[in-house]
Amino acid sequence: MDLFVDAARLEGTMLAGVRLVAFFVVAPPFSYKAFPGVVKVILGLGLAIGVAPKVTAGYEQLDTAAFLVALVTQLLVGLVLGFMVYLVFAAVQSAGALVDLFGGFTLAQAYDPQSQVNGAQFTRLFQMASLALLFASGGYQLIIGGLVRSFDGVPLVDGRFPIDGVAPMLVAAFGQMFLAALQIAGPLVVVLFLADVGLGLLTRVAPALNAFQMGFPIKIGLTVLFAGALFMALPSVVSSLTGDAVQAITGRG
Question: What does the record list as coiled-coil region(s) (predicted)?
Fold first, then answer.
């Protein structure tokens, strides 16, 4: 019995695996430190084997130099796509940072080595909640599906990476991140800003009250009171961000 190995298909599967593993290392929710690196590698290689019949169709074996170039290209493609997804979901973390800033929680910020987030309570809480919602709602499946469809836009057979289009995509992703952060935390930030304005007016009317000392417990109470409304809206926000992440990966809606 002879064992036949298609070298071209094996090589294409390896290149696809490099793109997928690089994506899982950077993109949430797979970049979470609770996932061991071995799990990410196995997940990437297993998915590469699953999509190999599609992505390696028409692939021809390369020489050593061309294979190394293709290897670096697929690594860059995976990292760029993963970073695009990271920017999309960084809006939730940025919204939590805005709430901490205007609510007076920034003095208690700390670094979370699991999620690699440096922030105060609401920054880390929003980040953990968004990761949990991604798995609970099945949003991670949409992200993986978009990653598989990325081989249609940047196929293995072509071997080229449209590097001239990366900068506009990153600029647009940064702008979308800041816009989404303001949309998420905007109502609560406005309430806290109006509380500061009210305390300032009270200080002008009655300086002896020293209203700014009262401002810390008032703003903390308002933040805790209205933060529940943000959490009620967080599932729809994560669902919308998942759609944006899939669109960023595939280049279409």
Answer: none
CA distance 242 to 246: 6
Beta partners for residue 110, in sequence order: 119
pLDDT tens digits along 171-181: 777 777 777 88
* Residue carrying structure tokens 């001239």: 164
- The residue-averaged pLDDT of 120-137 equals 81
> What are the percentages of helix, strand and coil residues in the chain, rounded to 5?
80, 0, 20
Cβ neighbours of residue 176 closer than 8 Å, sequence gap 6 or more? 87, 88, 91, 244
Closest to 206 in 3D by CA, of 196, 195, 198: 198
Q: How far apart are CA 220 and CA 191, in angstroms?
A: 12
Q: How many CB atoms lie within 10 A of CB 164?
A: 7
Residue 213: Cβ within 10 Å count: 9
Question: Cα separation of 251 and 169, whole Å?
Answer: 9
Instruction: Identify the CA nearest to 80 among candidates 134, 44, 27, 152.
Output: 27
Residue 253's pLDDT is 45
* d(C-alpha 190, C-alpha 196), whole Å: 10
What is residue 110's three-state secondary structure? strand
Token digits of residue 5: 């190995």
Please check the confidence at residue 58 and state whether its pLDDT lies above 80.
no
> How many whole angstroms separate alpha carbon 68 and alpha carbon 15?
10
Structure tokens at 198: 């009210």
Listed by start position, the domains of the chain span: 7-250
**How much is the pTM?**
0.77
Cα first-last separation, the chain: 49
- Both tokens of 115, joined, read 């999620």
